[in-house]
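Example 3.2
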Amino acid sequence: MTPQLAHLEQLLGYRFTDASLLTRAVTHRSFSADHNERLEFLGDAVLSLAASSLLYQRFGASDEGDLTRIRAHLVREESLHRLALALELPKVLRLSEGEAKGGGAQRPSMLADAVEALIGATFVDGGFPAALALVQRLLADVIAESGNSGSAHWAKDAKTALQELLQGRRLAVPTYRITETRGQAHDQTFEVECAVPALNLAKRGEGRSRRIAEQEAARRLLDELIARDKSSTDLRV
């Protein structure tokens, strides 16, 4: 095992019995035939189950709809991308030379996939208890924050929450437009801009579909509005 992967183990808080699983989890299909897509497939399901279990225990008073929407926030691409950066995955992701030169190690979708692959690898290596413990470590701060009133907007999808917030202020609904499409037809990444002209605000989001990109853009704009409101409140205190 390389020093970089040993450091990744430390960040994960889990030591692999089969180190090849860790190597495979950070290997993109462009680098090797022994890549991480099967582990990603497995990790996606394990992450959903683990997050559901943790939320069920953490939010005993929440109904199914609220739990579903909070889980969607926890496992969305942007959240997984942030986890990938905290785990320093751009430093260890194994890519082809061409993919690396094209900025693949910084691509949110690729990094999010690697996080899911790591969860899948942990499940294969240590079973569900190990994977659940890993997900709990990775999501602990975000789950704690989701119980704060300032994060109550997570209980709805971002586009709906943003639209309701703007309508409550008697402002026009936001506009969405595709600003860029990258990749081949079977593996595209969309970039969408969400704008509120009345507030002179615009945010962009990325995703593997237009719908996901719109949600990411709306989420970022919503976070900006909530941060501004909080800042204004703090200044008045």
